[in-house]
Model the fold of this input.
Amino acid sequence: MNAKTFEERLKKGKEILEKLMDPEITLEESVRLYEEGMKTIEEARKLLEEARLKVETIERKYREVGEGGEE
Done:
């Protein structure tokens, strides 16, 4: 898989949305772009969830250090 950042995926999603708004787009192209967009959104969502879990882990680590004294 081509490693892309959250921001790159977000940009790609916006580009796909712009293409989908084109009144000249065919039904076949719309479906293809919709599928690509959904995949892009899911990839971005997974990265966001990973970041959220990492932040929670960091917060928990430093909360425990604060409660238990210095490490």
Q: What stands out?
A: Residues 55 and 61 are 10 Å apart (CA to CA).
